[in-house]
Amino acid sequence: METTELEHPTMPRIGDNAPDFEAVTTHGRLNFSDYADGKWVILFSHPADFTPVCTTELTGFANRKKEFEALDTKLIGLSIDSIHSHLAWVNNVKEKTGVYLDFPIIADIDMKVAKMYGMLQPNESETAAVRAVFFVDPFLKIRLVMYYPLNVGRNMDEILRVLEALQTSDEHKVALPLDWKKGDKVIVPPPKTLKEMEAVIENAYYEKIDFYLAKKSLPEKVLVTV
Ligand code: BEZ
Q1: CATH class of the structural domain 22-171
Q2: Which of 151, 152, 154 is the best mutation target for the ligand 1 pocket, counting ligand atoms within 8 Å of the beta carbon and taking the most?
Q3: Ligand 1 pocket, residue 15 CB under 6 Å
Q4: Where in the chain is the domain with CATH 3.40.30.10?
Q5: Structure confidence by residue, pLDDT tens digits, 201-217
Q6: Model's pTM, two decimal places?
Q7: 54 is catalytic
């Protein structure tokens, strides 16, 4: 039997280059890689404007925007709605809640970007994007992907936690354990040679279960003011 593009949508994976695109947004027409401008980007989709769970989620992103900015990260939303619908919804949310959704929201009415990013999952909905979150690094690589169904809202603390974990892992070349959050100890990379193994075993500062499971504290950042 012939299969359609919708039955087998493109699903960008961890480590892939983030597909580039041009789109109409609430901030005008933009090109994704230009928008990224060397920063981290969170590209997220919601099923539809003027719906309750989506309203809680997008106000959640807007309320935490300063925390994303502090992590050098830009936000961009998407749904398969028209630009007129987006503008009316943004205005309505501002009037009713006082929260301004002041990041670009893509009007993906032809589903081009949603299909590119595997946001259309036809057994969930053939017309609305699922709740996807793509974490794109400054080199435009996809580093983490979340897909949530239509009826379950995401968790903003978790989105910020994993973003900080990715950045910490890059900066210090470490891995992060279960439930890691900023300030917690990190995983020492497991040794690959006997010499490295001895070094872990002999290190008195590490918290050790064994040579392959050792944790260490990261040096505290010193703020230098001039
Ligand atoms: C919501 O955001 O509330 C929603 C949107 C689409 C389907 C179900 C719930």
Answers
A1: alpha beta
A2: 151
A3: no
A4: 22-171
A5: 999 999 999 999 999 99
A6: 0.93
A7: yes
